[in-house]
Design a protein that fits this description.
The chain is an alpha+beta fold and 324 residues long. The protein is 42% helix and 19% strand. The strands form two sheets. A four-stranded antiparallel beta sheet has the order 1-2-3-4, covered by helices on one side. A four-stranded antiparallel beta sheet has the order 5-6-7-8, with helices on one face. It starts with a helix and ends with a strand.
Length: 324
Amino acid sequence: MDNVTHSLTAWMLSRAGLNRLTPHATAILLLSANAPDLDALGALGGSLDYIRCHRGILHSFVAAPFLALAAVALVRLFTRKPLRWGPACLVALAGVLSHLLLDWTNAYGIRLLLPFSTAWLRLDITSLIDLWIAVALGLAAVAPLLSRLVSAEIGACSAPSRAPAIAALCFFALFDCARYALHERAIATLDSRMYANHVPLRVAAFPVSSSPLRWRGLVEGTEFYAAYDIDLLKEFDPSRGQIFYKPDAPKAVAAALATDTFQQFLRFSQYPFWRVVPLDDPEHGARVEAMDLRFGPPSDPHFVATAILDGNFKVHQAWFALRH
C-alpha cells in the first residue's frame, strides 16, 4: 500500500486504544508502520536495484522485531523521556505487522519469508492506492476535529472518542474480506471458461480501485495472454478480451534472458510478457522487451526490461525502467 494509507492505519491503531499502552504511541506507530519501506532507498542505485531491494528483507517476519526496536529507540532518542520498553516494542511491532499485512493484500506482493524463501506472496485484493480505504481512514482521521468544532459551537465539552478509529479499522477489515470473496468469484469466472478451445494455463484478477465489483482479468494460454475488464454484475464474455500473442523468437528471448538485468526482473515479475521487434540498427538486430502484465498491458507497460541484440543474438545493451 502507499505510505499515506500505512500512516493513517497507524494513526487509527493509536486512537483505537494502543496509545494507552505507552507514551508517544502515535509517533512509534507512525515510524514503525512505515519502516519496512526504507528498502525503497535501493532506488538510489537505479530502477533495477529498486525491484531487487524493494519489499525485500525489511518486509519479512525476520526483520519485524528489529524494525520495531529501532522505531522505539528513535522515539526515545528524540523525546529524551523514559519509556517502558516492553509495551512500547509491542506497539511498534503492531505497526510493522500492519505494514506487512497491508502489502500482502495487493498485487505487488511481498517476500514475507526471506531469507528462508524468496517466494512472492500476494492476495491481489487491493490496489496500491485504494480509494475506498483511503476515504474511510481519512474520514475517521478528521472526525474528532469536526466533533470538537461542533462542540465548541454549542458550548459543550468534547472528550476524545475511540469510536471513529475502531469503526474505520473494522470497515477496513470487512472491506478486505469482501474483496477477497469477490476476487475468488472473479478467478472462478475466468477459470471456468475455454479460450481458443483450450483450458487456460493460469488466470489472475487484479483490483480496480474505483469499484470492488470491477477487476482486471488476465488469462494465460499456451500461445497468448488475454486481458479482460470484468464487472461481476454483468455476464462474462470470453470472446471480448484483448489478445496478446507470445513471440516466436526463442533465440532472441534466450539471449536476453541470459543477462543479469532480465534475470533480476524475472525474479520479480509474476506475469512476464515478451515482445521482440526487428531493428535495422544494428543490422538484422532485435529489441527484446519483457514486461509484467500485472501493472498494465503491452500498450502501456510500467515495469519493462529491454535488450538490444545484433544479428548474431549478441546483447549490446540491456536495462530496466519504471514507466509512469
